[in-house]
Amino acid sequence: MGASLSNTAENGSATGGTGLGDMPESCVALVFMYLTPPEICNLARLNRAFRGAAFSDAVWESKLPSNYHHMLNLLPHWRYEGLSKKSIFALLSRPVSFDNDNKEVWLDRVSGRICMSISSKAMSITSSEDRRHWNWFPTDESRFQVVAYCQQVWWFEVSGTVMFPFPPDIYTLTFRIHIGKFLKRIGRRVSNFEHTHGWDLGPVRYELSTSDGQCSVSECLLHDIEQNDAKGNIKHGCWIEYKVGEFIVSRSDPVTEVRFSMKQIDCTHSKGGLCVDSVSITPSDLTRCRKTGSFCK
Fold this sequence. Notes:
By secondary structure, this protein is of the alpha+beta class. The protein contains nine helices and 15 strands. Strands 1, 2, 3, 5, 6, 8, 13 and 15 form an eight-stranded antiparallel sheet that branches. It has a five-stranded antiparallel sheet with strand order 4-7-14-11-12. A hairpin with a 7-residue loop joins strand 5 and strand 6. It comes from Anisodus tanguticus.
């Protein structure tokens, strides 16, 4: 069947009929504007007309967010000078670092919508300068290759802010945390809960606010969110994505400032044994944001 489709696409006119290869490239390009980038790249293999349309700047311009130039401005000029729109899409679908490489922004390779991740290195952490309370350790389980580990504190507070011209959309902000410390022994991942304590004695408070007055507040016991979910998946000893809240961007100008925090400041007891990796900001209806993608060449 695949061979038959290929023959029809290329040789329809040669056999006296009309095939996909007889479609004007401009018409194919108009159809491609309604398809996703992976679908376009798959169809580009059918024939020359489809391949030509798959490289059209007009097609890929429609897949880029309206203010993608702000992302390009984070890169050296030589990285994108002279590139086609398809190549620019491919470039921006990979993480673009900024703020001393402590923040990354990229395009979801299917929808072309903006996603962002913020390292704990870019956050303000109370008592982080005291190694008795906090320390940092490298790991390939973080996109930033390092996470903050709370060993023991009485006042727990992690906060941060980001200013970015997000395109109009509804976004979700999520903290990525890990109860207990993890390490590798003889090639196996092992979780260590030796210093994990105090989180079951009081809730952690999460806050989100924006420069245009939106806000979201929630509380939870970390002990509760590490339990098995509705599908029976065990979260104990795994990374947990905790949704703080949503915010709406109606326009990119003025730039949106997003402030967020995670705190447990009940000083009647100490707490510890918690890793804080990052905060992610993604369009709310995306199940996940892919870090990289493949494109037709």
